């Protein structure tokens, strides 16, 4: 119960919990105890009352008749979706007694948690769960599916996830969106850029797909997948060769600029053009434009780092962003992630000390299929929450093969019977964020927000924190940390003297003021968290780790002998796989399309609207051809992590084709570095078609 849940009617401020950089302020309208409308909060300093279509329709998801209301136990074969309702007592007892016997027989590392950020609230995403699994001594999961590679590449260069204040976008004169489909994935970044554009700013988009973001650009630059490091090096070549760098900034704020100056000589525009597909004159034009326009800002997206060379792509663009001294100019610099400014006290929240120095094994979440099918000693139990790996994890056929294992005891905690939950032995119903207390820290803007429960728990659903408290009690764990209340968890997380940017931001203050801004440096920090305290154009740390210490182009792996590079990204009306199970959202998306160049389509005998079968060594899937010039020859792009079809077939499962190789840094995913072959689907001959 909270002050809000007790009021049957009213308009309540809260925050969007989805895994999206914008982290919008919301106004939730309630009548007779039910949410009737979700709108944007005009008082939010960045998102200012505008929200996306997905969340505008979210009340329907909250009250969807498919939503889980009670715990379920499997009654049919795995994947058959046959379950019977059970009580919470039986569910918790079934889970903990099974775990107890697994621990006795195989040890706690036979149990593997698997989660991501289906709910961005910190205590539910990475609070009580972490405490519980540390105490249990379970195998660890490396949560590397999203930003791991780029995060590592950026950190080697800048020391941590710091960037320009997005609110300063309005001051920029040149805004470069590099590998980000912001019209769909970061809409308020576009709103801010449009404001700058009204003052005369130019918008440049560098992408492998001329999608909705590319179409709104003043200048769209198509590039071949995984070649961004080469383009950044080519631009740096021109900047050095034509004395367009800021020598003062390089001397005072960076290390390794002399080495870099020598190093980029070999990346002349002709060579770079051959690698990237970007014409030589465009490389000169962009380099000159970038050095002659100030402020100039780069928004570095996630797309570039879902590649074999993803860490390096991000690092190379980051190095480019410092050469002209733009980081000292309001409205200059770059944004990849700003999460360091709102970093809470992770150790106090997650309590890794509960592991008691046990040395537990660890799995990379991008290789779940291997973990479940090809690991000794085996994983005997999987506990999934806030994530839908049967759809979102790479090499999906192997993941599902693992989930089918009769001897794998699987628990899934979610709001819906997802594709993953279909394989569970026990399914637990989760609350939505509108039913939880939590605090939220954007990884793009600088505002922290509190989300109070607005409605009662739906059916018998429970939050992640509540379920882990129940599991801890049933396991007989006596540490008080495993019974802390949600409010206590938040207070502990925000007690963080080591982060100066959080000064004055604590639980009580968040209740009084809905939006509290990190005390970030005016423009640029005095000292970076790199070993040298400066931007590391040359990274001795990388050299020690056997990585190229200077930004270096390393091509995508060619180990797969297939014709096309396949880039399956997210889409406008879904949030990863969330909403893909909703007919309205799927309807707004219309079709699972495959963007293919006209010349390639002609060669393959594929016409616009044809069903295309994509295949490779991992699996196959079907998409509908969208033939045109939105992608370069040799590249095919899809959008959206589509749900299984109504008869539960994974027909449009793009991750059936994605590799589970790891990126060059950070153990990141390589969703966009895979290759596929294409052919037109031959429709079965029917009597009618014969005539
Ligand atoms: N509507 C909506 N919003 C979302 C999400 C969603 O699913 N739907 N997901 C959320 C999440 S979890 C994340 S991580 C972000 C992701 O959002 P973004 O940061 O925008 O990342 P992606 O959409 O994965 O890829 C961005 C762009 O990179 C391009 N790209 C792919 N490979 C390359 C390359 O090698 N070079 C270049 N230059 N471009 C390339 C793709 O064509 C795509 O247009 O969005 C968040 N917001
Ligand atoms: N091919 C391809 N694959 C990708 C990507 C891509 O671009 N291309 N993007 C990748 C990226 S960047 C990401 S971040 C991942 C995202 O992958 P996921 O983290 O799996 O994201 P979703 O698909 O949105 O699934 C989140 C699930 O959490 C559930 N959920 C929401 N709130 C709660 C809660 O409070 N408690 C519990 N227990 N459950 C909750 C939702 O109902 C939903 O089923 O996908 C990755 N997969
Ligand atoms: S999904 Fe993103 S854009 Fe939509 S309401 Fe949530 S934070 Fe805002
Ligand atoms: Mo992500």
Automatic annotation (TrEMBL):
Superkingdom, taxonomy of origin: Bacteria
Extent of the signal sequence: none
Domain 4Fe-4S Mo/W bis-MGD-type: 9-66
GO MF assignments: iron-sulfur cluster binding; metal ion binding; molybdopterin cofactor binding; oxidoreductase activity
Pfam families: Molybdop_Fe4S4 (PF04879), Molybdopterin (PF00384), Molydop_binding (PF01568)
Presence of keyword Transcription regulation: no
Cofactor field: Mo-bis(molybdopterin guanine dinucleotide)
Keyword set, alphabetical order: Iron, Iron-sulfur, Metal-binding, Molybdenum, Oxidoreductase
Family: Belongs to the prokaryotic molybdopterin-containing oxidoreductase family.
PANTHER family linked: OXIDOREDUCTASE YYAE-RELATED (PTHR43742:SF6), TRIMETHYLAMINE-N-OXIDE REDUCTASE (PTHR43742)
Name of the protein in its database record: Oxidoreductase
Lineage of producing organism: Bacteria, Bacillati, Bacillota, Bacilli, Bacillales
């Amino acid at each position: 119960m909270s002050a809000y849940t007790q009021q049957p009617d009213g308009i309540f401020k809260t925050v969007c919990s989805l895994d999206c950089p914008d982290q919008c302020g919301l106004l939730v309208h309630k009548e007779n105890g039910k949410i009737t409308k979700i709108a944007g909060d005009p008082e939010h300093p960045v998102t200012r009352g505008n929200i996306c279509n997905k969340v505008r329709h979210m009340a329907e998801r909250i009250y969807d008749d498919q939503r889980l209301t009670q715990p379920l136990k499997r009654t049919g074969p795995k994947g058959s979706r046959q379950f019977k309702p059970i009580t919470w007592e039986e569910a918790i007892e079934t889970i903990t007694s099974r775990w107890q016997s697994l621990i006795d027989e195989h040890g706690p590392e036979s149990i593997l948690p698997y989660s991501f950020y289906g709910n961005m609230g910190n205590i539910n995403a990475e609070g009580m769960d972490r405490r519980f699994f540390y105490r249990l001594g379970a195998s660890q999961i490396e949560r590397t599916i999203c930003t791991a590679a780029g995060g590592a590449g950026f950190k080697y260069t800048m020391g941590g996830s710091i960037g320009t204040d997005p609110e300063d976008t309005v001051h920029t004169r040149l805004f470069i969106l590099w590998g980000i489909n912001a019209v769909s994935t970061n809409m308020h970044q576009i709103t801010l850029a449009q404001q700058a554009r009204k003052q005369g700013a130019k918008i440049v988009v560098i992408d492998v797909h001329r999608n909705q973001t590319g179409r709104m650009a003043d200048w769209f630059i198509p590039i071949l997948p995984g070649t961004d490091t080469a383009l950044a090096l080519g631009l740096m070549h021109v900047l050095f060769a034509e004395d367009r760098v800021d020598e003062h900034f390089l001397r005072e704020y960076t290390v390794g600029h002399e080495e870099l100056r020598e190093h980029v000589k070999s990346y002349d525009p002709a060579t770079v053009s051959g690698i990237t597909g970007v014409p030589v004159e465009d490389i000169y034009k962009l380099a000159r434009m970038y050095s002659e326009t100030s402020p100039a800002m780069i928004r570095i997206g996630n797309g570039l780092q879902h590649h074999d060379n993803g860490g390096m792509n991000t690092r190379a663009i980051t190095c480019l962003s410092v050469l002209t001294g733009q980081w000292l100019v309001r409205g200059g610099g770059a944004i990849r992630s700003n999460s360091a400014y709102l970093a809470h006290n992770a150790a106090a929240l997650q309590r890794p000390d509960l592991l008691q120095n046990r040395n537990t094994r660890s799995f990379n979440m991008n290789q779940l299929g291997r973990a479940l099918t090809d690991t000794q000693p085996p994983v005997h139990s999987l506990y999934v929450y806030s994530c839908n790996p049967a759809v979102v994890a790479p090499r999906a056929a192997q993941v599902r093969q693992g989930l089918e294992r009769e001897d794998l005891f699987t628990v899934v905690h979610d709001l819906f019977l997802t594709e993953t939950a279909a394989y569970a032995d026990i399914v637990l119903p989760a609350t939505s964020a509108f039913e939880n207390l939590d605090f939220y820290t954007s990884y793009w803007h600088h505002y922290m927000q509190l989300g109070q429960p607005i409605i009662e728990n739906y059916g018998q659903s429970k939050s992640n924190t509540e379920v882990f408290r129940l599991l801890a009690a049933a396991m007989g764990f006596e540490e008080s940390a495993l019974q802390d209340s949600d409010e206590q968890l938040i207070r502990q997380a925000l007690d963080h003297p080591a982060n100066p940017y959080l000064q004055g931001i604590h639980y009580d203050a968040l209740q009084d003021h809905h939006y509290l801004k990190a005390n970030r440096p005016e423009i640029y920090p005095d000292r970076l968290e790199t070993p040298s305290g400066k931007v590391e154009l040359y990274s001795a740390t990388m050299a020690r780790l056997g990585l190229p210490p200077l930004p270096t182009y390393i091509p995508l792996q060619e180990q797969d002998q297939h014709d096309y590079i396949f880039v399956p990204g997210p889409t406008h009306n879904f949030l990863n796989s969330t909403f893909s199970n909703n007919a309205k959202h799927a309807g707004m998306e219309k079709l699972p399309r495959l963007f293919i160049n006209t010349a390639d389509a002609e060669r393959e005998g594929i016409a616009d609207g044809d069903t295309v079968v994509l295949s490779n060594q991992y699996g196959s899937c079907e998409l509908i051809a969208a033939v045109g010039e939105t992608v370069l020859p040799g590249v095919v792009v899809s959008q959206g992590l589509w749900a299984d079809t109504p008869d539960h077939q994974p027909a449009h499962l793009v991750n059936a084709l994605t590799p589970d190789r790891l990126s060059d840094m950070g153990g990141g995913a390589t969703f966009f570095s895979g290759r596929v072959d294409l052919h037109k689907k031959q429709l079965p001959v029917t009597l009618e078609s014969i005539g």
